[in-house]
Amino acid sequence: MPESVCLTVPKKLGETAIRLITKLDLSNRDLQIQQIENTLKIPLISEPSLVAFEKLNNKLETFDISVYDFNERKKQHILPLDLLKDKLPPEFLEFVPHAIDFIGDIAIVEIPDELFEYKSLIGEAILTAHNQTNTVLKKAGAVKGVYRIRDLEFLAGTNKTSTVHVEYGNTFYVDVAKAYFSPRLSNEHNRVASQVTPKETVVDLFAGVGPFAIPIAKNHKTVQVYAIDINPDAVSLLEKNVKVNRVQKQVVSIVGDARKVVKNQLSKKADRVIMNLPETALEFIDVACEAIKLEGGIVHYYCFVYDSAEPLETAKTELEQAVKQNNRQVIKFLFTKTVREVAPYTWQVVVDAQIQ
User: Residue 53's CB: how many other CB atoms inside 10 A?
Assistant: First the structure.
């Protein structure tokens, strides 16, 4: 194993340290970062100069410079940052985005204000670094409105918004300008689908293009899934996805307001309800309680939790109180998880609860 100068930091400082040594042009990309218990060992190309050492000292609460035997990277992948080092002012390199959503052959990126004038350059770098990508789009606003769509700006490649995305063997036609879809929830789509048992009736209140409904139906030929969405473009894509995945017998797609649809068609029919509308899911607990069978069932509740020291407990308490207000009772919490941090002090949380 190659020996290299090593920067050791607590794991909690890892992201800050990596950004800093990248900015200082000290990162050794030929070697793998190592995690040893609660610390990260980051390979450097050389010992920091006095100026670099002073910057490390100012930015990191604690660190150590030593020598360590690292593993070599098995495959060197070019990152957009590598392509931008000689094209951006050095002080802007730390702002280059690392988080990119890949949906089919479309990459969607959020570019900070500091890099606004370099957005096309960043788009081209993403296109070059990721061979599977044909289009790069920039987030131009938040997800908004009852249709849950966001404004997008074309940056590089082919100017389009529609693509085909494959997830756990399921095929999804997606138009990112017309219907909400998050590849970051792929594990959740698969996890929930794996919980469903034969002959269940599932109501997906905010189905989108079908990322929950499709894998559930493909896993179990005896289930019945009612997939509802108020966005007609989303349901049009959902119906296409139902056909391409050959689950027409199991999935019923419905365009409409979930509240009205459940009241008029699906009252007390569900063994399981999926509520993936984290912005306002709490306002639809009454709808979930209406849909669940009299003898009870399971709810998969997705929500955002803001400024809480205990986001999981906060989500559980909110759900339990809302269910109680609708003359139902949470008899057991089956699963809770922080899905992701969507902004500073804002978490997306999922709670699976058994309700009677």
Answer: 14
